[in-house]
């Protein structure tokens, strides 16, 4: 027999998950689970605080991103690789039909896989790193790998919370899917948009994410918007300092038979630079 739940109103809450991380069996932890479940069945988006990733490490990542994207264009292009690795040039992605190429540049890394040899699995080619003469390893490679591990560990905890929100399932229900994950860290830079009324020019066109979950750290600039499926209007997601925006992707939507919603979102135009 199918299990039904009362669907709450559209919500993008800010949830302190520290009670769950410290004691998953506490009453406070159950409240965390319920808040996140309510978000997942409506907007598919929520923000988390109390996640345990240090502000110092986050600041290192912002600094690393700014240093990378400030490199000369020719140097950045030499760091381009296959999908999921290395530098992504501005305009290389079009996420929304009818819009111009997204006005953003990126850089992606994944796990360092020991003895990784060709043929490589999709999205698991070796990482591409700037030469240490361009950016010293302690300013870029080392903090990014530390950050990748921290986000991977946090994602495991979030998947347990999401599993528990389904009711009747063990928190380990998704563990088998995450044993050898394709989990990447992607740095993004949205340069200032030109002064124009061109509505086809966007930072990132309206889209859904294809993975299980996405964790996004914003730098204080607004721009992320989520579609309210009921009103068909886009809703701003105000940045919360040091918080992560978490959203359900297509894969998790599929795993839960649509109970958790993979929702359309976009990044609107910027007048100032955003990393």
Automatic annotation (TrEMBL):
Belongs to the iron/ascorbate-dependent oxidoreductase family. One of its GO terms (molecular function) is oxidoreductase activity. Residues 181-275 form the Fe2OG dioxygenase domain. Keywords: Iron, Metal-binding, Oxidoreductase. This is Fe2OG dioxygenase domain-containing protein. Signal peptide: none annotated. The keyword Iron applies. Pfam families: 2OG-FeII_Oxy (PF03171), DIOX_N (PF14226). SUPFAM superfamilies: Clavaminate synthase-like. One of its GO terms (biological process) is small molecule biosynthetic process.
